[in-house]
Design a protein that fits this description.
By secondary structure, the chain is mainly beta. The protein has 2 helices and 9 strands, in the order ββαβββββββα.
Length: 134
């Protein structure tokens, strides 16, 4: 399972060894200022039927790899019946990153708060990511 972390001023997505082999890369970095939107896709496999994916795609089970769609570069590491965090970026090497994770809702909420400048360390918030110190 992929791991999402905030490290300094970027989000790092580290793929599990089998995912890294399929995607031909171990990790992806997205600078926080480049993130435009973060949301959760409850059924990430539903939009992947006609996808040209460089990686491994087993319909109805999982998809791991990279693709170019509508002029956008995407990294996909999703599993059926598991929600995915969707990171939309602009001005970085990746335009979209979809990663399944059992805690997708919490991760997306913490990242959205961070993007909005409220940070997961704000009073009353229990964040998964370290608060940034400016």
């Amino acid at each position: 399972m992929a791991d999402l972390r905030v490290e300094g001023t970027q989000v790092t997505v580290r793929l599990a060894p089998a995912e890294a082999l399929a995607a031909r890369r171990r990790e992806v970095h997205l600078p926080l200022p480049c993130l435009r939107m973060v949301h959760v896709e409850e059924a990430p496999m539903s939009d992947l039927r006609l996808l040209r994916l460089v990686g491994v795609f087993w319909p109805g089970a999982f998809a791991v790899g990279t693709c170019h769609r509508d002029g956008r570069r995407e990294l996909i590491a999703v599993r059926a019946r598991q929600p995915a965090v969707v990171l939309d970026a602009e001005g970085s090497g990746w335009d979209r990153v979809l990663v399944s994770h059992p805690d997708a809702v919490e991760i997306a909420a913490d990242l959205a708060a961070l993007i909005l400048g409220r940070g997961p360390g704000a009073p009353g918030r229990r964040g998964m990511f370290p608060a940034s110190h400016d």
